[in-house]
Amino acid sequence: MPVIVCYAPTNEATDETKNFFYSALEDSFCFIRPADFIICLGDFNAVTGVDRCMLVVVGPFGSGSPNDNSDRSLELCAFARLRVCESWFRRKDIHRLT
Questions:
Q1: pLDDT for 98
Q2: Checking DSSP bridges between strand 39-43 and strand 3-7, what pairing results, if any?
Q3: Residue 85, domain extent
Q4: Which of the listed residues 1, 57, 78, 97 has the most CB atoms within 10 Å of its CB?
């Protein structure tokens, strides 16, 4: 079971830095077999938002207001067939954003 741990650049980072990070992260998925169960942990400096435009990635309980990092993170999840776990379960707000 592949485990990927990463920390994305903050929202204040340049677009060049963010593009490099997400490109490198995308490349790492090329080394993983399609049948593997992937766990991707870390701080993506992003929130899912409550918009349900990414139904396959974000569950019914998304949170927060999306930013530039949110778009990049959700696009990566769609590319790698990942799901944002926190958005699939109802939780109290105090436990949602840790």
A1: 47
A2: parallel
A3: 3-96
A4: 57
- How distant, in Å, are the alpha carbons of 7, 69, 70, 88 from that of 13? 13, 10, 14, 29
For residues 1 and 94, give the distance between their C-alpha atoms in angstroms, rounded to a whole number. 31
Burial label for 62, CB within 10 Å (0-12, 13-18, 19+), is buried
Q: Is residue 12 helix, strand or coil? A: coil
Helix residue ranges, H only, the chain: 15-28, 68-80, 93-96
Residues 59-75 pLDDT 10s: 777 777 778 888 888 88
**Three-state DSSP class for residue 52:** coil
Instruction: Return the structure tokens found at 39.
Output: 């766990």
Judge whether residue 96 has pLDDT over 70: no
Task: Tally the domains of the chain.
Answer: 1
Q: What is the pTM of this model?
A: 0.76
DSSP class of residue 35 equals T
